[in-house]
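Predict the 3D structure for this chain.
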Amino acid sequence: MNIARIDLNLLVYLDVLLRERNVTKSAAHLGITQPAMSNGLRRLRELLDDPLLVRTSDGMTPTERALELQPQIRDVLANIERAVEPQSTFDPSTATRVVRIMASDYAESTLIPGLLSRLAIEAPNITLDVLTPSDVSLEDVEQGRVDMLLNRFDEMPESFHQSTVWRDDFSCLLSIDNPLNKNFNLDNYLSGRHVWVSKTGMGASVGMNPQDSQRLGWVDEALKTLGKERRITVFTRHYLVAALLSQQADLIATLPSQLVRLQINNPLVRMHKPPFSIPSFELKMAWSPLLQHNPYHQWIRRLVVEIGGELSEYSPNE
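Done. Predicted structure below.
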């Protein structure tokens, strides 16, 4: 196929069609008429000798060929946008913009305060808009409508860029009145009542069940390797709520250490190293390939990594 015969606008059409999977919505997104979008799809089918999108009971469904092309088309368009983007420097001291960050409750509680403090000094006219995982879709991130994700991720689209902010371990919080403080060993840990906190991801989740061991996460998986299980009394999706609940005399909260360090001056709780080994995990930052070479975005990413490095130097178990 001669590259000179290809209308690059068709690649833009295809990129939008594979995201929207709807001709009318794709036309509206591009600001063209529905017939023009339909004509573009017809030309793409002829060019690639594939139907690309097939109408099924679930709507317009991409073919196998279309799914193979999708990440390649996204990379091509990202490279073109980067090539034609004017090169400019970014001055944070004079910048006026909104930085939109999707952050889990864990990341928001631990990292965002430090980020806000640095912004107040280095970029006083920048505003933070912190979104929850259920507020954001992967498409929002892919299109650069959200600057970055801060969370623990099991999976992420291959086209996204990622960086580790820090590696964290776990600590336990108990009320100062909890009798287990006197001898915090594994048997006493298992005898207590426990608060469980979810590892939040993209989108809304469904309810939990104490018997659903495969979904309970790192702490319970570590106990399972020992042939043990804990008695979970309450499930919550908020780490700070779990820390608050640990102030009750008979509850134990096993939480990421960076979160526990926020309670360092709380006279109502005591901190302990878990009486068994729990694998550590990484807090990740992820962003769209469209923003990879943007000077502003490079600056905010460096700032997040710097703050993460400063915070990770301290552990409440030391």
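The chain has three domains: 3-84, 97-167+282-311, 170-279.
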